[in-house]
From TrEMBL:
This is tRNA-uridine aminocarboxypropyltransferase. The keyword Methyltransferase does not apply. It comes from Vibrio brasiliensis LMG 20546. InterPro entries: DTW (IPR005636), DTWD2/TAPT (IPR039262). It comes from the Bacteria. Residues 19-214 form the DTW domain. Its EC number is 2.5.1.25. One of its GO terms (biological process) is tRNA processing.
């Protein structure tokens, strides 16, 4: 999708951080490339990532980390008026139960909300979790202006879970990244291992991403990568 979008682009892409020479796949600096450490993907849930136009180009985008952890993972560029047929087919695929992930207080029709204690076992079909990948403003627009999402059930992350998570977090960032939202949703639905894998993979990415920033002082001990690799060796991921 990144390549496709690049080809469509009429102006050269010069976002912040574009001076760093990055691995085309994992988007961190070449010397920190994480591709060889890719997690083994889970088949417990399916994921559909709807990506806003701007988000595709951001090296800091974390949506792609979700795609690394789930076998049946699909990403589409969001369009209000011209949704891709493949995406619509996926929403109608009888193997899946499509579920939109969005905060409940912004959902007008409360009958769409899934009980906060529901797990994947409560669904007859494999959950297809639809994640809206973009800024909060873009995500709201995607949620409100996509007729093909209007009738689907909505899952909201438990606020207690979010605040617990925020307390453990090391930085002061107030918003959750898309990968963090997904990892909390996996936990809520009863997929502890997948939750753990994505949460640690996100830490690994963030660590390498910060190391790639020229302004930051490098930490070559890479504690997050070490923790991730040792969890994987112990087969707990
Ligand atoms: Zn790479």
């Amino acid at each position: 999708m990144y390549q496709q979008r690049l080809e469509r682009s009429t102006k050269p892409f010069n976002a912040r951080g574009s001076k760093v020479s990055r691995c085309q796949y994992c988007q961190v600096a070449q010397q920190d490339c994480l591709c060889e450490h890719q997690p083994s993907p889970s088949d417990e849930v399916a994921v559909l990532l709807l990506v806003s136009d701007n988000e595709v180009f951001k090296p800091s985008n974390t949506g792609r980390l979700i795609l690394d952890t789930v076998e049946e993972a699909f990403a589409f560029q969001w369009s209000r008026t011209e949704p891709e047929q493949d995406m619509l087919d996926l929403l109608n695929d009888p193997r899946y139960q499509p579920i939109v992930v969005f905060p409940d207080q912004y959902v007008e029709d409360k009958t769409r909300l899934i009980a906060s204690d529901a797990t994947s076992k409560d669904f007859q079909r494999k959950p297809l979790l639809i994640l809206l990948d973009g800024s909060w403003r873009e995500a709201r627009r995607m949620f409100n202006k996509s007729p093909y999402l209007n009738a689907l059930p909505v899952l909201s992350i438990n606020p207690d879970q979010v605040s617990q998570y925020m307390m453990r977090r090391s930085d002061n960032e107030k918003h959750l990244a898309t990968a963090e939202v997904a990892s909390l949703v996996f936990q809520q639905l009863g997929h502890d291992r997948l939750h753990q894998t994505l949460a640690m993979w996100f830490d690994v990415f963030r660590e390498s991403y910060l190391n790639s920033k020229t302004r930051n002082r490098r930490d070559d001990t890479k504690p997050a990568l070490k923790a991730y690799l040792s969890a994987r060796n112990e087969k707990s991921l």
